[in-house]
Write a structure and sequence with these properties.
heterodimer; A: five-stranded mixed beta sheet; five-stranded mixed beta sheet; 25 strands; B: mainly alpha
């Protein structure tokens, strides 16, 4: 198309990455050196460059329109109008080499296995506490420790059916676990939808590269949740808090892809310790519940009395072994940020192995020495409330003002058990589309792990990206977006 | 299926049918105003009355704007506080669809969500200002596209049956309401030869039901209130006639009702059977003698009663435990 005379025309012919400059002191997901791609990104860079800027811009618009029309949105809690937004999507994929992925895969399986054993132990004989591997007050004092669950063994001893383990890469590119999500980890629907949109937007790339598929996830999830009922036609449902929940799209998506009913608490009823769904033809027995409601709201007769979302009597039915709950109840204690520093010890204790994946060095403010270190060095640390998620309740020391630091320090001193501190990890950066072309933006990675009769890790996972220049916060509620994550198979070059 | 989901399916198509009916009504009325220049006939206010929103409307606009076309159109198209406006019905339809997104097909969702996004865009506002016909036509077309996709892409099982039941009952009520526009515009209909303005009004009513050509095929060029009423009430082949809509509702209700000896679905079946019997027993002589308006009012109320019975039978599910799946399957196999 002749567009001579417009300011953009000259630049539109330039290679896509001509102006791209990696961040200093930060691992770059695409380039090992200025203009020199990693061996495994070389082919992706070449194909993207071949498209040119203008073409790329057009495809970016196409991707956005796809998300809007598909209603692939999330709701924002703090938005007074209860509005829906499209989860911003970036069309430049994050690329992971197969050999690197193989080691992440092993590390995740090991970690989740150990955490499941940990849950089984602390809700029964509590050997790990007696052996003083982790202080009792950290575990039993956790607000997410559910005394009510002691002595109740879930089906097959399985607490963790689904885990989302957040990984970041430090300045050398080493993957480190940032946090575990063992309750109701969300985001997997975006992984699947991102892939569908990417295939529409860049069909030729997928013809040339061998990207590990992700479509199998819902099927695998269903198998994992019903793994203790082999050969039976288990009636499995997805339990959602309802259409106003920020992740409703995902609940609906998973129900659709698993061929399950999507139910709310009021659609279920417990009678003589069995769970039924209210259908147009009477009550139908329910065997397994993939629940996307927090423990607190599951059963008003046991947990929060004011819960309108839950099902009275559900916990009793679960305790009797009459229904599978995925995830199990009380998992929150294992992903408590105050327990996190002990996970390497937990892995060694239960598996007798060294942890495969590194994690981020952590100061536990509950310890006197750690607390004073944290307060003295608050300007260089990230301080996190242990029971907050979504990037809330957090101070990024190096980015905060003197006053913000002071005020946060006060809160930490008042309730040390509620805080941990970590050095700021210079999250790796990945080229990300901006109106001026690709620019480095920081990313993390949430792989999804499923545990049924065996453990399976979804290839890649959700790459979240801090779309704001210089930002470290990747959460969707705070200006984050997502990218498709490509694990390249062995014969991709 | 889950009762709440069935309820959403039932309401989704009812709301969408309201969107379509309203868009069609406004579209036709815009034409009608251009066609007939009769100063003393109120053309816009009756639309508010048959929508059942007269009180709200009179409370929100100055008295002299009562029959002002722009005011009425804005009220029936955009007013969010008016539950009968296109904006409100479309929003409700879309929210129902979003809630049961796992039940409807991708194509249905994309169509409805696309319509909703467009309706709330600047482009739609511009179209409304500059090409009013085109605006309403677009709304109607997308509603019909949704129905087409429903027919062609969705599992034709229980949820589908509830959707069709909902739209059939809604359609029966809408046709009766539209037929009543004439009464609110020009007063009672007699058996006499009518004024040109009345003829024009009847034509507009036929158009509002997408019935003008089908009507002339059946009526051989005659046009009178009595004939139009008879056609829209009783025609056996016209898909939007009251009788045909109720027949369709009955068929879907039969598909929904569980087989065998069960009390489930009894009261809705009886309500609909009763209404159909009463309607079929009526003659045009009786209706004209009694007054068309009164009969239409009775009918609209009766359809609401049927909907209430469906609500009680299926959405507020009886607490009775369903037989195990295997037993049910055997039963069905026997029935075949």
């Amino acid at each position: 198309m002749a567009r001579a005379g417009t300011a953009l025309s000259g630049r539109d012919k330039e290679p896509l990455f001509a102006d791209y400059k990696s961040l200093v002191g930060t691992y770059d997901e695409y380039f090992q050196d200025q203009g020199v791609p990693h061996p495994w990104t070389k082919i992706v860079v070449r194909h993207l460059e071949a498209l040119g800027r203008e073409e790329f811009r057009g495809r970016f618009r196409l991707a956005h329109a796809n998300f809007l029309e598909g209603g692939i949105t999330f709701s924002v809690y703090s938005d007074a109008k209860g509005g829906e937004r499209v989860f911003p999507f970036d069309p430049i994929p994050r690329v992971i080499d197969h050999s690197e992925w193989a080691y992440i895969d092993q590390g995740l399986k090991q970690r989740v296995e150990a955490l499941n054993l940990f849950l089984g132990d602390i809700y029964s004989s509590q050997k790990i506490l007696k052996d003083k591997v982790i202080p009792s007050r950290i575990v039993l004092g956790s607000p997410d420790y559910r005394r009510e669950m002691v002595g109740i063994r879930p089906r097959n001893g399985n607490y963790i059916y689904v885990a989302g383990i957040d990984l970041v890469r430090d300045r050398l590119g080493t993957y480190r676990v940032l946090e575990d999500n063992l309750r109701v980890p969300s985001g997997v629907s975006y992984v699947l939808e991102n892939r569908i949109v990417m295939k529409k937007v860049f069909p030729r790339l997928f013809e040339r590269l061998r990207v590990s598929p992700v479509e199998d996830y819902p099927n695998r999830l269903r198998q994992a949740v019903t793994s203790s009922m082999p050969g039976q036609k288990a009636n499995m449902v997805v339990l959602t808090p309802g259409v106003f929940n920020s992740a409703y799209f995902e609940h609906s998506f998973l129900a659709r892809r698993m061929g399950c009913d999507l139910v709310e608490g009021r659609d279920l009823i417990v009678d003589r310790n069995r769970v039924y769904s209210r259908t147009t033809r009477g009550l139908e027995p329910v065997d397994a519940i993939y629940r996307r409601i927090d423990d607190d709201f599951l059963d008003p007769t046991v947990f929060r009395k004011d819960s309108q979302l839950g099902v009275p009597g559900l916990i009793q039915a679960y305790a009797k072994g009459n229904v599978i709950l995925a995830n199990g109840i009380g998992n929150g204690v294992a992903d408590d940020k105050a327990v996190y520093p002990f996970v390497p010890d937990i892995i060694r204790y239960y598996l007798g192995e060294d942890p495969i994946l590194e994690q981020v060095p952590t100061f536990i403010c509950d310890r006197k020495a750690d607390l004073s270190h944290t307060i003295e060095n608050i300007g260089s640390l990230v301080v996190k409330a242990v029971n907050e998620a979504g990037g809330y309740g957090m101070l990024v020391g190096p980015k905060a003002t003197q006053r913000e630091r002071k005020e946060f320090a006060k809160k930490v001193v008042a309730h040390p058990r509620n805080y941990i501190a970590q050095p700021l990890v210079e999250l790796s950066a990945c080229p990300t589309w901006t109106p001026r072309g690709p620019a480095p933006r920081r990313v993390d990675l949430r792989p999804f792990v499923l545990r049924g009769n065996d453990t399976w890790v979804l290839s890649g996972g959700l790459t979240r990206v801090a779309l704001v220049r210089g930002s470290y916060v990747v959460n969707s509620s705070q200006g984050g977006g997502s990218k498709d994550t490509w694990v390249l198979e062995r014969n991709s070059r | 299926m889950i009762s709440r989901v069935a309820e959403n399916a039932f309401w989704l198509t009812r709301y969408l049918d309201r969107v379509e009916s309203m868009a069609r009504l406004l579209y036709v009325n815009t034409n009608f105003v251009l066609d007939v220049q009769l100063e003393d006939t109120p053309r816009w206010h009756p639309l508010v009355v048959v929508a059942g929103e007269e009180k709200r409307f009179m409370g929100s606009v100055p008295k002299k704007a009562k029959d002002d076309g722009e005011t009425v159109q804005r009220f029936l198209t955009w007013e969010p506080s008016n539950p009968s406006s296109i904006a409100a019905s479309l929003g409700a339809a879309r929210e129902n669809a979003r809630t049961i997104r796992e039940t409807i097909s991708l194509e249905m969702w994309e169509t409805l969500n696309g319509l909703w996004l467009w309706f709330n865009s600047k482009e739609a506002e511009r179209r409304y200002q500059q090409e009013r016909f085109e605006f309403y036509r677009e709304v109607r077309n997308q509603c019909v596209l949704f129905q087409g996709f429903a027919l062609d892409t969705m599992l034709q099982s229980e949820a589908y049956n509830f959707m069709r039941l909902g739209s059939s009952l809604e359609r029966a009520g809408q046709t009766a309401r539209i037929l009543d526009v004439k009464y609110h515009a020009m007063g009672p209909t007699g058996n006499h030869i009518e004024m040109p303005s009345e003829v024009a009004q009847w034509q507009a009513i036929l158009r509002s039901c997408a019935a003008i050509e089908p009507y002339f095929k059946v009526a051989h060029g005659e046009l009178s209130g009595r004939e139009v009423a008879e056609f829209l009430l009783f025609d056996r082949h016209f898909p939007r006639s009251v009788r045909r809509s109720l027949d369709r509702a009955w068929n879907f209700l039969q598909l929904i009702r569980p087989r065998g000896k069960t009390p489930i679905g009894k009261s809705s079946a009886e309500a609909l059977r009763g209404l159909r019997a009463e309607l079929n027993a009526l003659t045009m002589e009786e209706i004209m003698a009694h007054g068309l308006h009164d009969k239409l009012t009775w009918f609209v109320d009766s359809v609401i009663e049927v909907c209430d019975a469906v609500q009680l039978d299926y959405f507020q599910s009886p607490l009775q435990i369903k037989r195990p799946r295997s037993a049910q399957r055997t039963k069905r196999a026997e029935a075949l």
